[in-house]
Amino acid sequence: MTQHTRVLVLGGGPAGSVAATALAQQGIAVQLIESAQFPRYHIGESLTPSCRTILEQIGVAKKLDAHGFVIKHGGAFRWDDDSWVFDWGAQIGSRSWQVDRAEFDLLLANHARDNGVAVTMGVTAKKVVFAGDRPTSVQCDDQDGNSFTVDDFDFLIDATGRNGLLSAQHFKDRHPHVNLRNVAIWGYWRGAKVLPDTPTGGINIISTPEGWFWIIPLSGGRTSVGFVTGKDTFAELRRGHDTLDDIFLSLVKNSPAVRDLVADAEYLGTARVETDYSYVGGRFGGPGYMIVGDAACFLDPLLSSGVHLALYSAFNAAASIASVSRGEVSETEALTYFEFAYRRAYTRLLALVSVMYERYLGKDGFFHTSDRLVDTSGTGERAKSLSFVEIIAGVSDMREAQDASTRVLTERLVDEAFQVQERVSVVDGRPDFSSVLENPLRDAESSEYRLVTTPRLGLKRVFADAER
């Protein structure tokens, strides 16, 4: 670690690797440290088209295509009494992948190395030391238990995932989503089917009275099958079964639709479970640092938003830091843009995910909410489900980051999220508005900058476009 490190990235998952690669491609020296030795298992296999857009920008999409991951063209919902299909190729002209995260994350980390990032595995960041409001050093342990300090950096990116070195451990300002107190349990099958009319390589979302299933086809004939339900319901299930496999297999058996899809398949075991995964940090950045991916926030598996938010935040962080390093914007301006862009994407998904758990609304209610969560002015007559498709594809976030003329009205977006929270978030018998009330979008009219990728990655002032 003798190389001068302008940017230190903590965490080598998708957010950390993408941020590091994008910065290195702008000629910035980057050091990335990761606690694990890759490859390592991680859940989160279904990617959105926005991920492809970003991965194309950093030159790794062709490697993913060649690797053999399942190409994902959309999916099919069977939600309560409604069924509908989304076809990304036909509706938005794009596609993505279903990935094995162990292979995907390793591929991204290796791509970072190939682009000049100094990647070190087996090093755990334990504590960030601040001088005033700015981080100045990071205390680390290597895999042999040796302690040392890294202090040769100008800017820090926290991509430590759910561990949340800054949000959860240093600032202690992470707040759980009380209306998303869910548990996910999942396992793998070989030879499972998907619902009829599912686009090639597509995901299935199938609801039950107690929750919902995901069905994700993977390479090698394997399928990821998972179930999401409330914590109280899962606690009851645990009391009635001896093992996680018993719980999982009983859930599959009790769903006629899912039972049919795995009827001729082989269960590969062993069931896994995650809980307490829906949260948001009180800040996404500050002087000398930005928090990206799961280190900042995570919603729910329902719309496969995890990797989208990770890559979206990482790419915007890299653009912001690159513009600061070139003197194009001040650090304060870049931090304002980053917080605004990331928080806007998170807020929109919070509203849509939350409203989908309001089961009585039906698909028309979901589509109506989606229309209100994007700026459709000047787009002409739109297909009924197009706004919904654009949101779950990450297209709306990418468009608004890059095109100043299509910025959603933030007041409308936040009000919609507030109304959803009012209906579904209850603590001690009262509505809980904390995640919306603390959202800085409520006090911001818009960002003064937009993301640009040509002639180089960075930020550009919106009013500069208007003056041309």
From TrEMBL:
<feature type="domain" description="FAD-binding">
    <location>
        <begin position="5"/>
        <end position="339"/>
    </location>
</feature>
<keyword id="KW-0560">Oxidoreductase</keyword>
<protein>
    <submittedName>
        <fullName>Dehydrogenase (Flavoprotein)</fullName>
    </submittedName>
</protein>
<comment type="similarity">
    <text>Belongs to the flavin-dependent halogenase family. Bacterial tryptophan halogenase subfamily.</text>
</comment>
<dbReference type="InterPro" id="IPR002938">
    <property type="entry name" value="FAD-bd"/>
</dbReference>
<dbReference type="GO" id="GO:0071949">
    <property type="term" value="F:FAD binding"/>
</dbReference>
<dbReference type="InterPro" id="IPR036188">
    <property type="entry name" value="FAD/NAD-bd_sf"/>
</dbReference>
<dbReference type="Pfam" id="PF01494">
    <property type="entry name" value="FAD_binding_3"/>
</dbReference>
<dbReference type="GO" id="GO:0016491">
    <property type="term" value="F:oxidoreductase activity"/>
</dbReference>
<dbReference type="InterPro" id="IPR050816">
    <property type="entry name" value="Flavin-dep_Halogenase_NPB"/>
</dbReference>
